[in-house]
Write a structure and sequence with these properties.
Blueprint lengths: L6 E5 L4 E4 L2 H10 L7 E8 L3 H9 L12 E8 L7 H20 L4 E2 L6 E7 L3 E7 L21 H10 L2 H6 L3 E4 L6 H10 L21 H14 L8 E5 L2 H14 L5 E5 L12 E5 L13 H15 L4 E6 L14 E7 L2 E9 L20 H21 L4 E6 L7 E6 L2 E7 L8 H18 L6 E6 L18 E5 L2 E5 L14 H10 L4 E5 L5 H8 L4 E6 L2 H13 L8 E4 L2 H7 L4 E6 L4 E2 L8 E2 H13 L2 E11 L8 H6 E5 L1 H4 L10 E7 L1
Parallel strand pairs: 4-5, 4-6, 8-9, 8-11, 9-10, 11-12, 17-18, 21-22, 21-24, 22-23, 24-27
Antiparallel strand pairs: 1-2, 3-7, 6-7, 12-14, 13-14, 15-16, 16-17, 19-20, 25-26, 27-29, 28-29
Helix pairs in contact: 1-7, 2-3, 4-6, 6-8, 10-11, 12-13
């Protein structure tokens, strides 16, 4: 505020009070990079209940601020430990304003919470309260340049605050470089470019709250705006670099840079964190480590911090890094000593900004701090992987398999599963809740990831990690990333499209290999129904085997489209097969058709906005099977499978139908340690 030549009177933890002219108010809205909002106080009052609030606000001539044809809304904030019910006071404040208008002119303005013409802000203090005009309107972090971005991007004003604490304005004036090695949606890059070119962030906005205020002076505002435009530099002397492993993220950055008008000042490149190198001798690194990372879970996020620390030491010796983190427990894994720590809040989350002078690794000294080594116990894991690799690779070649399970928690200390997909591998980490902060558990995860690439003879870039919580329900379809990189793999003459990175599951249940083989043999000339079809791999197998008709039902259009690609991968025209986007339970209850073979592999638990209620396999499987059996032909068969823990088939089904427990028939050899339940069910 002081840098904008505005008089500061009071500084509080949550607000800065200033005194200035209307023109200076416009300047604050145009130029402030850090403020959340600019509020213009209209009335202060005291009172322990809502009576004083109502009477005070009803006496204010609100028609001097807006007219009855305009809409309005009231936001609120509250002093800590205040006992006042804020939503009730906000409602009383609205009533007072509306009643004042009605008394004055016989008409009243309407309330619009989403996009009002005028916004007010009620602050409820400890006895003393204030109502202000929301001068800026929408939060000032909404610069107007964000076109798209990843999940939970950093707020623009918080990013600017971090850049101020990093000394970027002064560094930019000296022509130093700035690097963000994991740039996400590019917020640091854009704010850094705006600072380096003296571009007022408010120039990018289309609207401010004061523009609908009756006392607004458009001439004064345009004067301030012209001065801000004249101050903007045409050149940027400070090089700015952004890196990210995700091409999708970089496409978002490119859109945002273009919208902000700073595309020409920022260099982007797709690089894994370990490949990032400093572009010049001097500069600063600014980084907001991802909260989830592509590994899929915060319990493995320590690996990212290790990798970040290693990269900083290896490539940025002599620079200063500013690492902003919400996951404070992982900061120790950087292996770097901060010189300062700043406490900042990202919304309600208390975070740390670490200022780290980087002393790097010199002369290829791999013994320097930051170079990771597997523990002594990792040798037995490596030996088992090599032994299994030799065994299963020969077996897979004989059976025309490009995807299979190679390791399935063979050693209790290394409770992971490893699946091969051609020259790539997926590691499934079974994380128990008490192990999230367990250093020994993290050490073993590190052992696995350090040793697997060499033991499997693959690149570390071709190793994908998924974390599974045994106590979680319904997370198998959770999205982790948006790389959208697909691979087509072979299985016993069939071909399937998989995605190893974007979700917990890859699009192909490897342990259903024998189910697909069975469907291929069983369904020749028959009508086949696949409920909860996922990516329709069993339907594809049935179609290749000569099924007269296949019907695939799933709630997700994404997976049904994936299923159509699977049909195409096997030279089958998807238009000749049936796909229904629907809740399987409701769909089967309403259908009157009959089928000769029905396959059901429901999720253990499912919750969706598209369904009326949750699906729980333990509670709902009997009703599901009974409904499906009504659609099964007299001599037909229903195959029901589930991976649910402690599953017990409802005994009433065994009384009504002929049921065979067939798990041994369908669980393949490479999944003998992780069998699923399978039941073949027929009419008696």
């Amino acid at each position: 505020m002081r840098a904008l030549d505005v008089e500061v009177t009071v500084v509080r933890p949550t607000a800065v009070h200033v005194v200035g002219t209307l023109q200076e108010g416009y300047r604050l809205c145009l130029w402030s990079r850090v403020a959340s909002r600019v509020l213009l106080p209209l009335v202060s009052f005291e009172g322990e209940d809502d009576t004083a609030l109502y009477e005070t606000l009803r006496s204010i001539p609100w028609w001097e601020h807006f007219n009855s044809k305009q809409t309005f809304a009231i936001g609120s904030s509250q002093a800590p430990r205040s006992s006042v019910p804020s939503h009730y006071w906000v409602q009383r404040a609205k009533d007072a304003i509306v009643d004042a208008f009605r008394d004055h002119a016989g008409s009243r303005p309407s309330v619009d919470k989403k996009s009002p013409a005028v916004r007010f802000h009620l602050h409820i203090g400890k006895g003393a309260h204030e109502l202000a005009l929301d001068f800026s309107g929408e939060g000032l972090h909404r610069r107007g340049y964000r076109q798209s971005g990843g999940k939970a991007p950093l707020k623009e004003n918080l990013a600017a605050a971090i850049l101020y604490l990093a000394g970027w304005p002064e560094a930019a004036s000296r022509g130093l470089s700035l690097v963000d090695p994991t740039c996400g949606s590019g917020t640091f890059l854009i704010e850094a470019a705006l600072i380096a070119t003296d571009c007022a962030p408010g120039l990018l906005r289309e609207h401010f709250g004061f523009e609908s205020w009756l006392n607004h002076d458009e001439g004064l505002f345009q004067q301030e705006r012209r001065e801000a435009l004249a101050a903007r530099k045409a050149e940027c002397a400070a090089p700015i670099f952004g890196f990210d492993a995700s091409s999708k993220a970089l496409s978002y950055v490119q859109e945002n840079l273009r919208a902000a008008g700073v595309e020409q000042y920022v260099s982007l490149a797709r690089k894994a964190l370990t490949e990032v190198r400093r572009p010049s001798d001097h500069g600063i690194v600014v980084c907001n480590p991802p909260y989830g990372h592509r590994l899929g879970d915060e319990s493995t996020l320590f690996l990212f911090y290790q990798s970040l620390g290693d990269t900083l030491k290896k490539a940025f010796d002599g620079w200063t890094a500013y690492v902003f983190a919400a996951q404070q427990g992982n900061l120790k894994y950087l292996g770097l000593r901060p010189s300062r720590r700043h406490i900042l809040f990202n919304g309600a989350i208390e975070c740390r900004l670490l200022e780290i002078p980087i002393v790097g690794t010199r002369n290829g000294d791999k013994q320097a701090p930051g170079w990771r080594k597997p523990s002594d116990k990792a040798e037995m894991f490596v030996n088992r992987i090599k032994k299994n690799r030799k065994k299963w690779e020969r077996w897979a070649k004989r059976n025309d398999l490009e995807c299979y399970r190679l390791y399935d928690a063979d050693i209790p200390e290394y409770n992971v599963a490893v699946d091969r997909y051609q020259a790539k591998a997926v590691v499934h980490i079974y994380q128990r809740s008490h192990e999230v902060e367990d250093d020994l558990a993290k050490r073993r995860i590190q052992d696995v990831l350090l040793t697997l690439p060499e033991a499997l003879g693959i690149s570390s870039d071709d190793l994908f990690v998924k974390v599974r919580h045994r106590h979680d329900q319904g997370d198998q379809y959770a999205r982790l990333a948006r790389q959208e990189t697909e691979l087509t793999v072979a299985e016993e003459g069939l071909r399937f499209v998989v995605n190893l990175e974007d979700r917990i599951d890859t699009g192909l249940f490897l342990d259903h290999r024998k189910v697909r083989s069975y469907a291929r043999e069983r369904c020749r000339g028959k009508r086949m129904l696949n409920l909860f079809a996922y990516t329709c791999s069993v339907s594809v197998a049935a179609a290749v085997g000569g099924a007269k008709q296949t019907t695939s039902v799933d709630l997700s259009n994404t997976y049904l489209d994936w299923g159509r690609r699977n049909f195409g991968a096997n030279d089958l025209d998807p238009s000749k097969y049936r796909f229904f986007q629907s809740d399987a339970m409701r769909w089967i209850a309403k259908r009157g058709e009959t089928y000769d073979w029905v396959f059901i592999n429901p999720p253990t638990f499912s919750r969706s906005k598209k369904t009326k209620g949750d699906f729980n396999i333990h509670q709902d499987h009997a009703r599901l099977i009974e409904q499906a059996m009504r659609s099964l032909s007299k001599g037909g068969e229903l195959l029901f499978t589930t991976h649910a823990q402690s599953f017990r088939l409802d005994k009433r089904l065994k009384e009504r139908f002929a049921v065979q427990n067939s798990a041994k028939l369908f669980v393949p050899n490479d999944f003998a340690r992780s069998p699923f339940e399978a039941f073949r069910i027929r009419h008696r």
